[in-house]
Amino acid sequence: MKVVLSRHVLVEKIPLIKSLGFVISESQIEIIVKKPKWRGVTDSGQPTAMGLINGEHILRAVLKIKNGIITVITVHIARRGRYESTKED
Q1: Which residues pair with 61 in a beta bridge?
Q2: Closest by alpha carbon to 64, among 86, 83, 37, 42?
Q3: In angstroms, rounded to a whole number, what is the distance separating the alpha carbons of residues 4 and 6?
Q4: Around Cβ 5, how many Cβ atoms within 10 Å?
Q5: Whole-number pLDDT of residue 41
Q6: What CATH number does the domain located at 2-88 have?
Q7: How far apart are CA 89 and CA 82, in angstroms?
Q8: pLDDT for 56-66, tens place per residue?
Q9: Is 68 a residue whose pLDDT tops 70?
Protein backbone atom coordinates (compact mmCIF):
# COMPACT_ATOMS: atom_id res chain seq x y z
CA MET A 1 0.00 0.00 0.00
CA LYS A 2 1.09 3.54 -0.71
CA VAL A 3 1.73 5.79 2.32
CA VAL A 4 1.03 9.52 2.07
CA LEU A 5 1.83 12.04 4.81
CA SER A 6 -0.69 14.84 5.29
CA ARG A 7 0.35 18.46 5.07
CA HIS A 8 -0.37 18.70 8.82
CA VAL A 9 2.27 16.04 9.52
CA LEU A 10 4.86 17.55 7.17
CA VAL A 11 4.42 21.22 8.06
CA GLU A 12 3.35 21.17 11.69
CA LYS A 13 3.99 17.89 13.50
CA ILE A 14 7.51 16.95 12.34
CA PRO A 15 8.92 20.42 13.22
CA LEU A 16 7.02 20.44 16.54
CA ILE A 17 8.35 17.00 17.48
CA LYS A 18 11.86 18.13 16.49
CA SER A 19 11.53 21.17 18.77
CA LEU A 20 10.81 18.74 21.63
CA GLY A 21 14.14 17.00 20.99
CA PHE A 22 12.97 14.02 18.91
CA VAL A 23 14.27 13.72 15.37
CA ILE A 24 11.91 11.74 13.14
CA SER A 25 12.01 11.52 9.38
CA GLU A 26 9.35 10.95 6.77
CA SER A 27 10.89 7.55 6.01
CA GLN A 28 10.82 6.59 9.70
CA ILE A 29 7.10 7.39 9.83
CA GLU A 30 6.51 5.35 6.66
CA ILE A 31 8.38 2.35 8.11
CA ILE A 32 6.31 2.46 11.31
CA VAL A 33 3.09 2.69 9.29
CA LYS A 34 4.03 -0.24 7.03
CA LYS A 35 5.46 -2.46 9.81
CA PRO A 36 4.12 -1.26 13.16
CA LYS A 37 5.14 -2.88 16.42
CA TRP A 38 1.61 -2.20 17.73
CA ARG A 39 -1.72 -1.43 16.09
CA GLY A 40 -4.75 0.17 17.67
CA VAL A 41 -7.68 2.47 17.12
CA THR A 42 -8.48 5.93 18.39
CA ASP A 43 -11.53 6.66 20.52
CA SER A 44 -13.28 7.71 17.30
CA GLY A 45 -12.37 4.45 15.53
CA GLN A 46 -9.47 5.57 13.33
CA PRO A 47 -6.67 3.00 12.91
CA THR A 48 -3.28 3.71 14.46
CA ALA A 49 0.22 2.35 13.96
CA MET A 50 2.93 2.60 16.60
CA GLY A 51 6.64 1.92 16.80
CA LEU A 52 9.58 2.59 19.08
CA ILE A 53 11.69 5.68 18.58
CA ASN A 54 13.89 5.10 21.63
CA GLY A 55 13.84 3.08 24.84
CA GLU A 56 11.26 5.31 26.52
CA HIS A 57 9.07 6.67 23.71
CA ILE A 58 6.91 5.53 20.82
CA LEU A 59 5.67 7.29 17.72
CA ARG A 60 1.92 6.91 17.19
CA ALA A 61 0.47 7.61 13.75
CA VAL A 62 -3.27 8.11 13.20
CA LEU A 63 -4.30 6.79 9.80
CA LYS A 64 -7.00 6.98 7.16
CA ILE A 65 -7.11 4.03 4.77
CA LYS A 66 -9.05 4.41 1.54
CA ASN A 67 -8.69 2.90 -1.95
CA GLY A 68 -5.38 1.23 -1.09
CA ILE A 69 -3.78 4.47 0.12
CA ILE A 70 -2.75 4.98 3.75
CA THR A 71 -2.85 8.65 4.70
CA VAL A 72 -1.06 9.62 7.90
CA ILE A 73 -3.38 12.22 9.42
CA THR A 74 -1.24 13.07 12.43
CA VAL A 75 1.60 11.73 14.54
CA HIS A 76 2.64 12.21 18.13
CA ILE A 77 5.17 11.00 20.66
CA ALA A 78 4.04 9.09 23.74
CA ARG A 79 5.79 7.44 26.65
CA ARG A 80 6.12 3.68 26.43
CA GLY A 81 3.22 1.94 28.09
CA ARG A 82 0.61 4.55 27.20
CA TYR A 83 -0.62 2.72 24.09
CA GLU A 84 1.30 -0.55 24.16
CA SER A 85 -1.64 -2.50 25.53
CA THR A 86 -3.04 -2.50 21.99
CA LYS A 87 -2.44 -5.36 19.56
CA GLU A 88 1.21 -6.23 18.99
CA ASP A 89 2.30 -7.25 15.49
Answers
A1: 49, 75
A2: 42
A3: 6
A4: 21
A5: 93
A6: 3.30.2310
A7: 17
A8: 999 999 999 99
A9: yes
Given a contact cutoff of 8 angstroms between Cβ atoms, the answer to whether 4 and 73 are in contact is no
- Please report the pLDDT score of residue 84 as a whole number: 62
Q: Please state the length of the chain.
A: 89
For the sheet containing 57-66, what is the strand order?
A: 2-5, 69-79, 57-66, 47-52, 38-41, 87-88
Domain range annotation of the chain? 2-88
Contacts of 48 (CB under 8 A, 6+ apart): 39, 40, 41, 42, 60, 61, 62, 63, 83, 86
Amino acid 37 reads K
